[in-house]
Amino acid sequence: MTCFYCGGNMADSTTTHFTEVNGHYIIIKNVPCHKCTQCGEVVFSGSVVERLEQITEQLEKALTEVAIVNYSAA
Ligand SMILES: [Zn+2]
């Protein structure tokens, strides 16, 4: 797998995913990803994207303005 932007190598890594939905700030830590060793571009696999959407939907219903969760524990 090579980077879409710079053509560098993509290595397995983890990242912190940040998103804002309807005024809720959702931070998901330790998300598995592929990260470019040259430019740092992050790509998620399809199953991870689905899981992130599920977690975001769940947290959107929570009444907290800021939610910080661990990917593996969510
Ligand atoms: Zn790159």
- Small molecules bound: zinc ion
Tally of helical runs:
1
**What is the top-level CATH class?**
Alpha Beta
- How many DSSP-defined strands? 4
The class by helix and strand makeup works out as alpha+beta
Second-tier CATH architecture: Roll
Extract low-pLDDT stretches: none
Please name the CATH topology.
Answer: Ubiquitin-like (UB roll)
Q: How many separate structural domains?
A: 1
Along the chain, the helix and strand elements come as: EEEHE
Give average pLDDT, whole number: 93
Keywords:
single chain, 74 residues, alpha+beta, Ubiquitin-like (UB roll), 4-stranded mixed β-sheet, 1 helix, elongated, binds zinc ion
Structure commentary:
This protein has 74 residues and is an alpha+beta fold. It has one domain (10-70): Ubiquitin-like (UB roll) (Roll), CATH 3.10.20. 22% of the residues lie in helices and 43% in strands. It has 1 helix and 4 strands, in the order βββαβ. The chain has one helix spanning 46-61, and strands at residues 10-21, 24-36, 42-43, 66-70. Strands 1, 2, 3 and 4 form a 4-stranded mixed β-sheet that branches. Strand 1 (10-21) and strand 2 (24-36) form a beta hairpin. The relative contact order is 0.27. The mean pLDDT is 93. Zinc ion binds at residues 3, 5-6, 8, 36, 38-39, 41.
